[in-house]
Every structure is written in structure tokens, then in C-alpha cells.
Amino acid sequence: VKQHGRNGFHFFTQELQERVMNKIVLEEQLHSGVLQSQLQQYYQPVINASNFNVCGAEVLLRWNHPTRGILTPDSFLDAVEELGFLSEIDTTSRRLACNQLAEWHLTKLVDKNFVLAINASEQLLNEESFLTTIKSDLDNAGLFGSSLSIEVTEGVLVSNFDKTAAILNKLKDIGLTVAIDDFGTGYSSMAYLKWLPASTLKVDRSFVQNVPESAADCRVLKAIITLAKSLDMSVIVEGVETIEQAYLCREYGADMFQGYLFSRALSPENFADFITKHNPN
Ligand code: C2E
Ligand code: CA
Ligand code: CA
Ligand code: CA
């Protein structure tokens, strides 16, 4: 029955079947720890807007797949989260990143003001042991709390504001920075900003991608940065891809940039190369 091909329904079931298969394979790999061993921490430079030096990095997960190469999180993170492995992976990832930073301190690649940004999922924030493991990671690596910034999305806050706010305030108590990630893409209104227990705002890439061509987008971007600055927040603009965007964001008052204009996320070795070439000593 050679009827498959043009039949949309057939395509749909085939695709669905593939997705289910992939998830089963993924689950097996997670349970056996195979996948965990293939995950790597990559580092995207965060740039100081006033002197364009590297002042930090965001830790971004990459899957070094044996046959498919380096994969970005959109191809596997949702499934990892659904299967309940995200907090385990984030916990390991944070420990490794703390050790990496300690090594960079030792080799004087970065100074004590360098900030490592780490993504925290809702699952992770709600783990009983979240705070104590952060503290022991810092202690074991010999780092101060001020070396870490924890990024949470608005969505995580909105879903259980009081509980999440309490956890974030505890992070602030031990010196960590709390940053709101992807700001503007969630459900919270601008007025809500003053209630957020965060000192840093990461403006989502969607607000900068049509700048400077779209005059309306320029005004919205300017309004967001101005409002955050008036609340004494530090502002990082994500997804800066052109020099025009960088200058404009700086003019609007942004403190830091992150984006392909400067660099994509890099392996530790390439990150070390990048910072050596980029920062004056
Ligand atoms: P995010 O936290 O918003 O991270 C920024 C994403 O934007 C990264 O994608 C980064 O590579 C990308 N990006 C940075 N600059 C530019 C640019 O100039 N142009 C464009 N088009 N993109 C840019 P990535 O690495 O694919 O990560 C996607 C998302 O996956 C992250 O979004 C974050 O939500 C999540 N994620 C990544 N690593 C981890 C992790 O270790 N744990 C958790 N829980 N989530 C992670
Ligand atoms: Ca982030
Ligand atoms: Ca983001
Ligand atoms: Ca994102």
C-alpha cells in the first residue's frame, strides 16, 4: 500500500511517533547517565556597556552529541524538564561552573568582580536543598555569593510569587544577584517591576531585534530601560547583534550587553581565548 507521502495525517502520526521514540531514547539515556556525561557548560560573554570589556558570562548548556554534534537546549531541554531531570542537571552544571570560575580566578583570567549567570528552572528553585547546595558550591570553590547571578523568568515568579520571592530574597541575603530573564515576554506588567525581588533586568532579545529600524521598537526599548534604571536596577540587553544596537542601548542607559555582536556561547577553552584577546590587561 504505497499511499504514504502525500497524506498529511500520515505525516503527522509519523512525526509524532518519532517524537515519542526520541523521548524514550532520551529517557533511557538520562536514567543511565549517558546523556549527563555528554552535557557541557558553555559560556557567553557579558559585556560592560561603558568600556566594552567582558564583565561576566552566562552559563548555557550544550549537548555534545556523539553523531549530531553540539546541540543547543531547544532540541532537548523541554524533554529533559518533562522527564524530571532538569534540576539534577542544573545542580551538577552549577557545581561545575563554580569550579570553572574558581580556576579562572586562580589563573587570573578574570578578577573578583566577574559575575557568572546561571539559569534556574522552577523545578530547581523549589528543591528543598536549593539554597544549601548553592552555599556549599560557593564554599567548595572558594567563591563569594557576589560571583553568581541567578536568572529566573517572569513566568516562574508569577506561578507562585510569594514562595519564589522568599527564595530569591534568601539568595540576595547571601550576596547573590537575582536577575529577571527574558523580561517583557511573560505576563507581568511594567508596574509589577517594583515588586520583583531582583536587582537586574535582562531585556529579551525580541525588544532589540528590530532596532534601530523600527522607531516604535526604539521607543519601547528606551521606556523599558528607563523604567528599570529609575528603579535602580541593572540592565542587561540580550541579543545585541549590531554595533548600532549596542550604542543605542548604551545611550538609553543599559549597563551590559550580551549577544552575537560580541560572541556566542563558547567552550571553556574558547572563552578563555576570547577574554584574553578581548580584555586589555
Ligand atoms: P536564555 O536564558 O534567554 O539564554 C539566552 C539565549 O539567547 C541563548 O540560547 C543564547 O545562545 C541566545 N543568544 C545570545 N545572544 C544572541 C544573539 O545575539 N542573537 C540570538 N539570536 N540569540 C542569542 P541557548 O543557549 O540556545 O539557550 C536557550 C535557552 O535555554 C536559554 O535562554 C535558557 O532559557 C535555556 N537554558 C540554557 N542553558 C540552560 C541551563 O543550563 N539550565 C536551564 N534551566 N536552562 C538553560
Ligand atoms: Ca538566561
Ligand atoms: Ca534570556
Ligand atoms: Ca530564553
From TrEMBL:
<feature type="domain" description="EAL">
    <location>
        <begin position="23"/>
        <end position="279"/>
    </location>
</feature>
<protein>
    <submittedName>
        <fullName>Response regulator receiver modulated diguanylate cyclase/phosphodiesterase</fullName>
    </submittedName>
</protein>
